[in-house]
């Protein structure tokens, strides 16, 4: 069946639009997850929205399931790898990679799926740096649209990447096109600036779902401030977290600090530069003694708190920094780290880059903390309540230590909740360590479920079982899938939507 489908695609799009070679299947099936690679049936590279329409209609005719992806840089969440074996990867990033429009006055860029954070940053630089992107601390070659649709986030005031999308162009499972928001009105001049148009807001249907393929959208961009001043504080003890969180909540609830505020565990920080000392197969979690030594060596403390101010000049920002210093230093525990020190510390420079809209590769050093290339993300939400945050820390530390892994966690804090970014780095080449990784992830999910804090963005290995925990959502999303995509053309199984 798939060979007839590939022949039909070659006939319509050209022979160079399809690759079913062993090399392509290996490359697009690779991921860092413990479940192993997921081999696709082949790869298709469309060049336009019209190509995508053709492929979708042919997939429906031939009973083929597609796996749309952009740049495959969602490391630790699945990369290009499909949720199920033998799906056909529809790589939107290779040829559909244009910045279609930039409106500097109204602050947006219209982009295709292949536009990366690096590419969008370069486009803004070429135009005189009037607008600032919101990047992640992940790969600069990650796709801006893909990250937003999977509800990835950044650190600037425009951190909500999905919330910053407007005017989606979507290929539906029957090959028709839907434009969201005011874009449903042909010729609307407000398509990219007004999300609250006529009727239901449909954008959410295409986030963490398989109801359509987004081929372009506008991403809203922040005017670049003349001055950015980052600041950080280190705290010496694991038990300092409750006091930190309660201070940060006040700073964000009043929006005194415009960026999100990071509260980063010492190991999450130093593992961007260091590797597990003396690693050998079968080792457990790093000892507290060794961890403390690395915290001192890299200046992270047990916790690093970081944020930034924007304004007209460095002098104008100094009183704001002084106020933050007064709040943290009143604890008697905080060590202030200035903007100038941050610039010259490779562990801390990551934070300055993310607050400044500069794509950075530096945090990817986490992937080398242990050999073997294995990495999995776990993302529960933690209320901005110091007592609860401490409970979450103790829970995660206990489970990770029991299974032999380090507590590599960064709380990215808003006024009410923090996204608790757990990265579990393991040796994927070691069967025993991979097995421990699977058990550890399951134990963490179960523990957080039990206390009422479910995970959100989920690696492809776990998406279907994660949906099985949510019968209400599973029933509703299944009804929508049956109505929109009865043949299962687009990514059946993605986020557990069959």
Automatic annotation (TrEMBL):
The keyword Oxidoreductase applies. The keyword Oxidoreductase applies. Keywords: FAD, Flavoprotein, Oxidoreductase. PANTHER family: ARYL-ALCOHOL OXIDASE VANILLYL-ALCOHOL OXIDASE (AFU_ORTHOLOGUE AFUA_3G09500)-RELATED (PTHR11748:SF114), D-LACTATE DEHYDROGENASE (PTHR11748). The lineage of its organism: Bacteria, Bacillati, Actinomycetota, Actinomycetes, Pseudonocardiales. This is FAD-binding oxidoreductase. Residues 36-224 form the FAD-binding PCMH-type domain. It holds the Pfam family FAD_binding_4. It comes from Pseudonocardia yunnanensis.
């Amino acid at each position: 069946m798939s060979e007839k489908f590939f022949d039909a695609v070659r006939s319509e799009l050209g022979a160079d639009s399809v690759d079913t070679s062993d090399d392509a299947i290996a490359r697009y099936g690779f991921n860092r997850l413990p479940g192993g690679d997921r081999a696709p049936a082949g790869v298709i590279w469309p060049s336009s929205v019209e190509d995508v329409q053709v492929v979708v209609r042919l997939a429906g005719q031939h009973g083929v399931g597609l796996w749309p992806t952009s740049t495959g840089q969602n490391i630790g969440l699945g990369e290009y790898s499909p949720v199920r074996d033998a799906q056909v990867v529809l790589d939107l990033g290779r040829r559909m990679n244009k910045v279609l429009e930039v409106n500097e006055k109204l602050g947006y860029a219209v982009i295709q799926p292949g536009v990366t954070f690096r590419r969008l940053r370069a486009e803004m630089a070429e135009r005189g740096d009037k607008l600032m992107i919101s990047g992640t601390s992940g790969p600069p070659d990650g796709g801006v649209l893909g990250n937003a649709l999977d509800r990835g986030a950044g650190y600037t005031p425009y951190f909500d990447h999905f919330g910053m999308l407007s005017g989606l162009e979507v290929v539906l499972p029957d090959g028709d096109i839907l434009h969201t928001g005011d874009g449903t009105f042909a010729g609307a001049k407000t398509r990219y600036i007004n999300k609250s148009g006529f009727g239901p807001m449909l954008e959410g249907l295409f986030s963490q779902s398989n109801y359509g393929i987004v081929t372009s959208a506008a991403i809203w961009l922040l005017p670049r401030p003349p001055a950015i001043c980052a600041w950080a504080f280190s705290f010496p003890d694991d038990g300092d977290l409750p006091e930190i969180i309660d201070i940060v909540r006040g700073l964000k609830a009043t929006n005194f600090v415009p960026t999100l505020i990071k509260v980063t565990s010492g190991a999450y920080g130093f593992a961007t530069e260091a590797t597990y000392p003396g690693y050998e197969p079968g080792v457990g979690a790093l000892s507290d003694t060794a961890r403390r030594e690395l915290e001192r060596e890299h200046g992270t403390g047990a916790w690093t708190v970081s944020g930034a101010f924007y304004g007209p000049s460095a002098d104008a920002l100094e009183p704001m920094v002084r106020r933050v210093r007064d709040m943290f230093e009143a604890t008697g525990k905080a060590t202030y780290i200035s903007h100038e020190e941050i610039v010259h510390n490779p562990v801390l420079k990551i934070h300055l880059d993310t607050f400044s809209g500069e794509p950075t590769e530096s945090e990817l050093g986490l992937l080398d903390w242990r050999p073997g290339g294995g990495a999995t993300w776990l993302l529960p939400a933690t209320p901005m309540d110091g007592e609860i945050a401490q409970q979450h820390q103790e829970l995660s530390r206990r489970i990770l230590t029991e299974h032999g892994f380090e507590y590599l966690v960064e709380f990215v804090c808003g006024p009410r909740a923090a996204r608790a970014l757990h990265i579990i780095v393991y040796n994927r080449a070691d069967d025993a360590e991979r097995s421990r990784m699977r058990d550890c992830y399951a134990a963490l999910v179960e523990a957080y479920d039990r206390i009422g804090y479910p995970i959100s963005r989920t690696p492809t290995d776990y998406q279907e079982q994660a949906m099985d925990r949510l019968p209400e959502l599973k029933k509703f999303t299944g009804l929508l899938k049956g109505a929109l995509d009865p043949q299962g053309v687009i990514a059946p199984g993605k986020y557990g939507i069959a």
